[in-house]
Amino acid sequence: MQYMRFIAMVTIVAGVVSCTSNKAESILRQARKEAEQIVSDARDKADQIVQKAEQKSNQILKDAEKEAQQIILRKTKGSYSDNITASGRTISLSDLQQIVKEYKDNAVAAEDKYKGRVFVISIDNFDIDAGDQINIKKNLGGIETVWFAMDKGQKDVIASLNKKQTIKILGSVSKYYGSLWFDNCRILEIDN
After folding, report:
1. Which of 156, 73, 79, 81 shows the shortest CA–CA distance to 118?
2. CB 165 within 8 A of CB 191
3. Of the residues 72, 131, 166, 185, which has the maximum number of CB atoms within 10 A of its CB?
4. How far is CA 146 from CA 11, 103, 185, in A?
């Protein structure tokens, strides 16, 4: 009888241990699952922080580049040609196309009307032609091109440009020789 009791007791203890073991495994599974979720959440949060830091860094870099260009612009202001002043009538690209058309229609009349006149033009998607004379070239569509012969004091400013920027150029109408040319040009503003 004691033997039966002992077997019953061992069976009960084994059941309790088995139950405890199952419960412990369940607790361990739950703990692993929670730990994995915490790690996943931490990775997501870290990725968000890194992404925000990269965005802020890119903006700081962009702002610094713009400020550097503006500083160069201010420092070179005194070296410009005295042939033109900072005042000039602001015209659009369509105005430039009209001037080109007038030169094509009657070069003598257009020369009388425009030669030496000072204009301010905003352009983007331009090309830079470097050589003895630095020129900025703007295609007006088709084969129509306008050339801006830049003042030599603008070299540092022009070296910092990229064609995606919008620049405001001041220059005087010089000639039309298959293309409209502006001389003594300088950049007044740079926008990114």
Report:
1. 81
2. yes
3. 185
4. 100, 12, 12
Q: List, for residues 1-38, the tens digit of each pLDDT value.
A: 555 555 555 566 555 556 667 777 888 788 778 878 88
Q: In what order do the strands lie in the sheet with 144-150?
A: 89-91, 118-123, 166-176, 180-191, 144-150, 135-141, 127-129
Residue pair 118/171 in contact by the 8 Å Cβ criterion: yes
* Residue 66, burial from CB neighbour count under 10 angstroms (0-12, 13-18, 19+): middle
- Give the pLDDT confidence of 105-128 residue by residue, as tens digits: 999 999 999 998 999 999 888 888
CA dihedral 170, 173, 179, 185 (to 10 degrees): -30
Q: Which long-range contacts (CB under 8 A, 24 or more apart) does 61-69 make?
A: 62/192, 65/160, 65/192, 66/190, 66/192, 68/160, 69/157, 69/160, 69/161, 69/190
Tokens for 2, please give them.
């004691």
CA-wise closest residue to 183 among 119, 132, 127: 119
Give the residue among 117, 89, 99 at the shortest CA–CA distance from 176.
Answer: 99
